[in-house]
Amino acid sequence: MKKLSFLLLMVLAIVSCNKKHSKEYLSLVVKLENNKDSILTILSQEGTIKVIKVQEDGIFKDTLKVPKGGVYTLQTSPKKRAPIFLKNGFDIEISGNSEKFMTSFEFTGEGSENNSFILAQISESQRIGNPALILALEENEFKNKIIDLEKKQDSLLNSYKNIDSILIEMANQQTVQMISYFNQAYKKNKAMAKGTPSPEFKNYTNFKGRKKSLSSYAGKYVYIDVWATWCGPCIQQIPFLASLEKEYHNKNIEFISISTDESRRSGGSWDAAEKKWRNFVKAKELTGTQLWAGKDNSFQRAYEINSIPRFILIDPLGNIVDANAPRPSDPKLKELFTSLGI
Predict the structure, then answer these.
(1) What's the whole-model pTM score?
(2) Mind spelling out the 3-state secondary structure of the chain?
(3) % of residues, the chain, pLDDT over 70
């Protein structure tokens, strides 16, 4: 009898141990309705972590180890990807519909709340809508909107009680980054808003070797084309710009093209960069005012120009009309000129 009791206790102890998931790996079960894929892949930023083949019953099931707890990518095909928070020791089961990948996912098991939170985060971010509409708000409305966004993020985080500390830190960082983006973008938009004084370029070299500044054209509207000889889309706009210059030749507007050709694309030589610009202007018989910025990129930095061509319209008082004006090929540009009485 004592022997039987001892064996029974041993069996119960083994069963009890088996119920506790090992912290050395994680288990993953994925059940997808309407699934037509045979392989499920777990990816990190560095590459593939695990490839899981579908079983005969249509379920993806396996164990794997991850280098560290964090957000990975679950993928059945290039168009079916979803973020998933994984950590060794988790025992996660996912059910959903392959045709509604990610949005239909439901999670159960150890670690499931982390992934439910990620889906809730995605859903909340989609409700934010078009950032441009937020950035277009009046200042008080904008401030209230930012406060509201921050409160919603905090409320969402607080509504999930068993989230891993790694994910909490990531969520807080994302909120900080989002609020910082909106504040910086709003400040930039205000600085470059219609009617605000334009940043000025000074002593840029013209084709004849003379120095010109924005103030040289005070009293006129100034339409600026920021471009470079190596820029294909810039070159495509040249015929349209030439046509505009001819049409508005006797109007109160100056057409200025500022080349940003630099040493980096000219064998490390600024002299070569300037020569390349001069040769291009001469070969293409470019009209209007042709300037070369040289080493001074302060004007481009002030307007935060990170792609070209970029077109800017400034009024006779040196104030911004449009910091991102329509291209010469866009009919809206002539409509803008007409509205200004040019």
Answers:
(1) 0.65
(2) CHHHHHHHHHHHHHHHHHHCCCCCCEEEEEEEECCCCCEEEEEECCEEEEEEEECCCCEEEEEECCCCCEEEEEEEECCEEEEEEECCCCEEEEEEEHHHCCCCCEEEEECHHHHHHHHHHHHHHHHHCCHHHHHCCCHHHHHHHHHHHHHHHHHHHHCCCCCCHHHHHHHHHHHHHHHHHHHHHHHHHHHCCCCCECCCCCCEEECCCCEECHHHHCCCEEEEEEECCCCHHHHHHHHHHHHHHHHCCCCCEEEEEEECCCHHHCCCCHHHHHHHHHHHHHHHCCCCEEEECCCCCHHHHHCCCCCCCEEEEECCCCEEEECCCCCCCCHHHHHHHHHCCC
(3) 94
